[in-house]
Amino acid sequence: MSKVLTITLNAAYDLVGRLARIELGEVNQVETLGLFPAGKGINVAKVLRDLGVDVAVGGFLGQDNVGDFEHLFQQIGLQDRFQRVEGKTRINVKITETEADVTDLNFLGYQITPQDWAEFVEKSLAYCQQFDIIAVCGSLPRGVSPVQFADWLRQLGNVGVKVVLDSSNAALTEGLKANPWLVKPNHRELEAWIGHSLSSQSEIIAAAQKLRAQGIANVIISMGAQGSLWLSEQGILQAQPPKCENVVSTVGAGDSMVAGLIYGIVNQLPTAKTLEFATAVSAFAVSQSNVGVPDLRLLDPILQQVKINQIEG
Ligand SMILES: Nc1ncnc2c1ncn2[C@@H]1O[C@H](COP(=O)(O)OP(=O)(O)OP(=O)(O)O)[C@@H](O)[C@H]1O
Ligand SMILES: [Mg+2]
């Protein structure tokens, strides 16, 4: 089986809670769902572990509050490649309101020094050779510019590993220039990349085709409850998840999808089966407050309801 590494450059603790409606400027009582060591790459790794895939995790962690991360890595068996840096890993607040809108309050985290970055680039380019797939997920910490990030992605690609990129904003825009092997922007991230709104499926496909044309082998556009599109050399697949009656939190739906895609790829499932599986894992994620699949049998009823279609481009 292939070896998988996920990279989280801007790790975070997620403080997740729920309340009917946020009243701005008022005191709000929040139902606490938990404080989880997180960050997108770590979320992807957690789901992959649940799915039985061996994973290593890397990136940066603040040395002052590293405890819960180390505990998690030990508890679930994630190989720890994280570089410790001065300071604390940030805490992000995620509040789900009754209508299932999630408000994210993302704080700034540790500051990466030029020395930290140089060390990271050198070490990661060496250890990445032990892996077949590297998923690079989430935002950039202070001190790492989008251009530096894209340079590093390019070097990773040159080593010959399959680079999966799931990021946003300038990190995504620059990172896409490095032509990763697989990307999974959501609908809004694709709009930000192309610079205008995309209101129909054909517009979304046309934008995604531009990414394919520039040299990205696999372009997956996720569209929340509307499912996703996967453009590859095999054409265009469309996935529709079942309607989820009990949406607890959409936090981590995208990360769960990336994990499901990687699962299919490392197990060499056909493309349509991979997308079907990834759709089920991501649809399952919205029914819970945190990411993960505690029991694989929970996916079966969802899998049966996922619809996959080949469509004309
Ligand atoms: N309400 C929902 N019902 C069913 N499936 C959903 C729902 N929301 C998301 N999904 C599934 O999760 C996938 C990814 O969701 P989405 O497009 O919201 O990702 P994202 O915006 O990248 O999420 P994240 O916040 O984790 O980065 C969708 O393609 C779909 O398969
Ligand atoms: Mg996302």
Task: Please provide a written account of the structure.
The chain has a 10-stranded mixed beta sheet with strand order 5-4-1-8-9-10-11-12-13-14, sandwiched between helices. A 4-stranded mixed beta sheet has the order 3-2-6-7. By secondary structure, the protein is an alpha/beta fold. The chain is built from 10 helices and 14 strands. The chain is globular, with a radius of gyration of 19 Å. Helix 1 packs across helix 8, helix 4 crosses helix 5 and helix 8 runs antiparallel to helix 9. Strand 4, helix 2 and strand 5 form a beta-alpha-beta unit. Bound molecules: adenosine-5'-triphosphate and magnesium ion (MG). The site of adenosine-5'-triphosphate (ATP) has 20 residues, from helix 8 and helix 9. The site of adenosine-5'-triphosphate has 20 residues, from helix 8 and helix 9.
Which blocks of ≥5 consecutive residues have pLDDT under 50? Answer: none
Q: Distance N terminus to C terminus?
A: 33 Å
- Which whole number gives the mean pLDDT? 95
* Cofactors, ions, other ligands: adenosine-5'-triphosphate, magnesium ion
Structural class label: alpha/beta
Strand content: 25-35%
- Number of helical segments? 10
- Based on CA atoms alone, the radius of gyration comes out at 19 Å
Total DSSP E strands: 14
Q: Report the major sheet.
A: 10 strands, mixed
Q: Can you describe this structure in just a few lines?
A:
It is built from 10 helices and 14 strands. With 313 residues, it is α/β, with parallel strands linked by helices. Magnesium ion is lined by residues 166, 186, 254.
